[in-house]
Every structure is written in structure tokens, then in C-alpha cells.
Automatic annotation (TrEMBL), chain A:
<dbReference type="GO" id="GO:0015419">
    <property type="term" value="F:ABC-type sulfate transporter activity"/>
</dbReference>
<dbReference type="InterPro" id="IPR050093">
    <property type="entry name" value="ABC_SmlMolc_Importer"/>
</dbReference>
<keyword id="KW-0067">ATP-binding</keyword>
<dbReference type="InterPro" id="IPR003439">
    <property type="entry name" value="ABC_transporter-like_ATP-bd"/>
</dbReference>
<dbReference type="Pfam" id="PF00005">
    <property type="entry name" value="ABC_tran"/>
</dbReference>
<keyword id="KW-1278">Translocase</keyword>
<keyword id="KW-0764">Sulfate transport</keyword>
<dbReference type="InterPro" id="IPR017871">
    <property type="entry name" value="ABC_transporter-like_CS"/>
</dbReference>
<feature type="domain" description="ABC transporter">
    <location>
        <begin position="3"/>
        <end position="237"/>
    </location>
</feature>
Automatic annotation (TrEMBL), chain B:
<feature type="domain" description="ABC transmembrane type-1">
    <location>
        <begin position="62"/>
        <end position="265"/>
    </location>
</feature>
<protein>
    <recommendedName>
        <fullName>Sulfate transport system permease protein CysW</fullName>
    </recommendedName>
</protein>
<keyword id="KW-0812">Transmembrane</keyword>
<feature type="transmembrane region" description="Helical">
    <location>
        <begin position="138"/>
        <end position="162"/>
    </location>
</feature>
<feature type="transmembrane region" description="Helical">
    <location>
        <begin position="12"/>
        <end position="39"/>
    </location>
</feature>
<keyword id="KW-1133">Transmembrane helix</keyword>
<keyword id="KW-0813">Transport</keyword>
<feature type="transmembrane region" description="Helical">
    <location>
        <begin position="97"/>
        <end position="118"/>
    </location>
</feature>
<comment type="subunit">
    <text>The complex is composed of two ATP-binding proteins (CysA), two transmembrane proteins (CysT and CysW) and a solute-binding protein (CysP).</text>
</comment>
Amino acid sequence: MSIEIRNIEKRFGNFTALDNVSLKVESGELLALLGPSGCGKTTLLRIIAGLEQPDAGQVLFSGADTTHTHVSERQVGFVFQHYALFRHMTVFDNVAFGLSVRPRKLRPSREEIRERVMKLLKMVQLDWLADAYPAQLSGGQRQRIALARSLAVEPSVLLLDEPFGALDAKVRKDLRRWLRDLHHQMHITSVFVTHDQEEALEVSDRVVVMDHGHIEQIGRPDDIYENPATPFVTRFLGDVNLFHGRVDGGHFTHGNFAHALDDGAQAASDSAVAYVRPHDLDISRLAGGALATGSIEHIHAVGPLVRIEVAPDSGDAIEVALSKDRYRELGLMLGDKVFVTPKKLSVFVGAQDYAI
Amino acid sequence: MASRSLLTSEQAWVRYALTTFALLFLLVFLLVPLVSVFWEALSKGWELYAAALTEYEAWQAIKLTLIAAAISVPLNLVFGVAAAWAIARFEFRGKSLLTTLIDLPFSVSPVVAGLMYVLLFGSHGWLGNWLSAHDIQIIFAVPGIVLATVFVTFPFVARELIPLMQAQGQDEEQAAIVLGASGFAAFWHVTLPNIKWGLLYGVILTNARAMGEFGAVSVVSGHIRGETNTIPLHVEILYNEYNFVGAFACASILAMLALVTLAIKTVIEWRIERQHEASLVRTQQARAALV
């Protein structure tokens, strides 16, 4: 089932949570809503579920207007950040709940319910916990049960609100891989909310980056990462170095250094910012193609990448990530005077310094 | 106690002294008075005790007390759940006013509560003329006693539930509704089981107060023997007449009632705990079978 969101507005008092948001989720797609806390991503998810009413705009499921359809009739599965398992019921009864509260005419028989619940519990690999109460489970187990419970009613849409937010890093990594595999098997249209860019980029088919109640960019994970549309997206998706300068004649100028731009069509401007990720920077002992110069202040050589901080004459330290091989080849030492060369840079004209 | 860290625990004599003090306090102020009620009631033997309870006026007082409790407990149960639901789940204008109003019976002296009803419904009260014209008697009659009882027991259930429901949040109810449950099904299968202990406790407190209320009921009752006396009022009358066996026999009924409700609560708690333990054992067996 596809989901379409048209011009949704939502305010809480004076706070605008969603400002004219439109979005289409394709059938069978796994979409991530990514953004900092307070950007409106959870509100948007709850509006899709029907747990919140928008002040204006429409929600369409497969082209049919569902804006005023009651939550219980939308056939959505919703996974809550804090699991929301029924604490007084066993795991089995939790998963069976959606089936056993159906009106008598639509309710499957006891045996059918039992069969379906056990099948789902096997799928989440927790059938041996059927008799346990939620309080006896770990966080990861609880979230898997919550997922099984939401799938028991065979929803046409699966919505997940920060599903791994309350789990520790290791479990989180396992579970998100598991969710992606599950989605590949079932192909149910899914939307999940996260503030973790790594999670969004790794799991989803497409990512929607949001800030302050509006959408900054929609795209495939690699596309968003390689070609961020705005300074906000650039900064939100990972570490980035800022170089202030100006653009004219197809060049970006920063201090005494100039760098040719790929698309010479950039409008000339006196105030432009170049954003370069640490691994898109190289270090050289020659000035050719450089963007800045400085002395090496810190070398952090643990892990696959060597992180080097270069202190320019003025401004913030520049962070460079080099491969181990490149680092050895250059033979860098603390205090060395070096040049920093960008392999790739995103220039935003007229952009003010953007704080997150 | 060997595993207890010396760094985080008090010294042994402090612990024992505090425990002893607490136990002594409970003994002197709770247990001894309770025992003395039964002791005094039975001091002249079982026959006099039984006679004191089966006497017409005592029996009428017991009946009236049961009627007042039977009306005010369900009424305040429904009201308490509704008010707690509204306050814990919704934002609306006048919410803080409602919260304050619920507490009013706690902050007003019971005697004042009784007087309010006399001023309102008494023969010289605001509605007195209209009521006597229609031949309705509220003050010095059963309706007045019920009204006063409902008033003083108003806050117990709501007060018990509001913090509980606020702490539990509404995620579980929303999960139930997303899964297709109707509002009533979500309340019945999810909300009610989650609040049942708080609710039971609120009902026990409401019932104890409804049966034991003296001040407010005393003002509106008129103390008509065999007609408008509840157990506490009857106890006072008998005591003032130096009929100690009768007074303590009636008092022992109230005390017994408290003990019975406590026993019921303990039994239910114990059974639930056993159920959870059994599930834990089954889970551990399943885990062992897996490995």
C-alpha cells in the first residue's frame, strides 16, 4: 500500500511541528524519517498512524483519503519507542491481542490464533518466551515482541517510532540488520523514525531528512550522503569541515587558496561556505590544489582510519581522515607544516553558519 | 547480610534500634488498641456480645451503614475512574480547578461538610421550602446520610489513580487501539488491569471511610435511634450510656471489616505473585531446553 501526505500542517500551541509537509511513500518501500529531536518526524509518523489529527492537509492510503479514518480502522502496525507491551499479559497474549479483540464474526478460531502467534514468535526467534511476562525480557527481546504483535494483525503499513532508540549499541546494530532482512522478506510498506543518521542510511530504501517541521531533502541514502541539498543535511549526516570564502568565475576562494568548481554555473557570491567531509580531504606537502594550510596538531591512529587535526593560522582545526597506507606514505609527524587538499566539496552560496 | 557493604549501610545497632522502635510504635498505637476493642467487647462473654449485635437498634445501624457504603462506594468508584482518566489523559481548560475540587473533601472538616448539606437541604436552608412542599426529606433522613458519605469519600479513588495513570502513560492504550481494539476494549483489557491495584486500594479506603465516617454524618443524621443512626453514631450513643459491651461490640464490627478487607487484598496479591513466579519457572525451563 502506498502512502501519500499532502500539505500537512500541525501546531501545538505556538509551536509549529509540521509546516506544509508533502511526501509520497511507495508501496513496499522502507522509508526513514531522519532529523534532530523536535523536527516533527514523530508527529508526522503519528499523523500517518492516526494517533494525531493534522490541523490541515490530507493523508491518503493507496489513493484513498484516510485523514478522518479512526486509528483502529487504518490497519497499521505501530511499534513504539518504549515497546508499550501490555505488562499484565504474557508474551503470547500480547501478540494474540490484535486477533482476540476482533468482533466474533471476524475473529479467527482459538487454534488459528495459536498457530499464527507461534509462527510470528518463531519468526522473531522468541517462541520459547511465549509464557513470559514483558518484565522478564531484555530490551531487544521486548522490541522484537512488539514487532511481532504489530505484525499479527497483518497490517498494510508498518510504522516504527525510534524502534531501536532505547537499546544499547550492539543490540541496535543486530536489530536493524534483522529489520532490514525482515522487510526484504515481507515487503510491507514501512516508515521508521530515527535521529541516528547511520541507522537511517544503513536500513532504508529512501531517507527523508527533516528539520524545524519541514522536509530538507528526500533521496536514496547514498545520494543524500554524496549530494546533500542543504547545509543542514550536510552537517546532520556526519562530521564536516567548513571553509568560508567566496565564489566567482567558477572558483571557490578561501583565503589565499582557490579551488576550481565542477559545475562552473555557481552564481558569484561574496559569502559562500564549502563543506568537506574529513575523508574527502587529503594531506599534501605541496600547495597545488590546496584549500588551506596549517600544522599538524593531533594524530589519532586507532582504527582503520587515521584522524589528523590540522590547525590553520586562523579559524577552527581541520579534521582529516586518511587511510593507514596513505598516512604511512606521507610519513606525517606532529608539528609538520602541511597543505589540505579537497577531493570533493559541496559549496553553498549565501549560507550562514548553520548550527545544529 | 554478609554481602551487605559496610560502606553503604548503617551500623548494626542503628538498624536494630530503628526496627525495634518502629515495631514498638506499631504495637502500642495500632495493635494494642485493636485487640482491646475485641477484648472489651467480649469481656462479659459471647452471649452478651451476640445480644448486643442482634438488638433491633444495633441491627438497624448496621443496615444503614451498609446501605450508605453500598451507594457511595460504586458511585465514587465510577466517578474516581472517570476523573482520573480525564485528568491523566487529556489537556483541557479548568483541569487544575477540577484537581483542586477533587481534594476539597480532604481539606474541609467533616463537620463543615455536614453543615453545608444542612444549610442547603435543611428546613431553614436554601432548598428547604421547596423540599418540604414536595414532601422530600433529606436532612435527618437516609438521603442526607448518603449524601454526606459520598462527599467525604469523594477523593479516595481519584487520588489513588491520577498519579498511577500519569506515570503509566498512554502508550499501552494507544497500542491496543492501533491493534484494532475499541475504546471500551482498550479500557477493559489494558487500562483496567494496569490500575486494578490502585483501584482496589482506593475502594478499600473509600469503603472504610464510608462505614467509619462520624463527623459529617453526625450533623445530618439527627441521631434518631433505629432510624438514622449508623454504626459509629450508635457506638457513641451506647458509650455515653455506659453500655461498654454494646459500644465495643459494634466497634468490633468496624474493626473486623478492616481486617477482612486487608486479608482479601493480601490473598489476591499473593495469588498474582505466584502466577508470575510460575511463568518465570516455565520460561527458565524453556530456556534450559533450548540450550
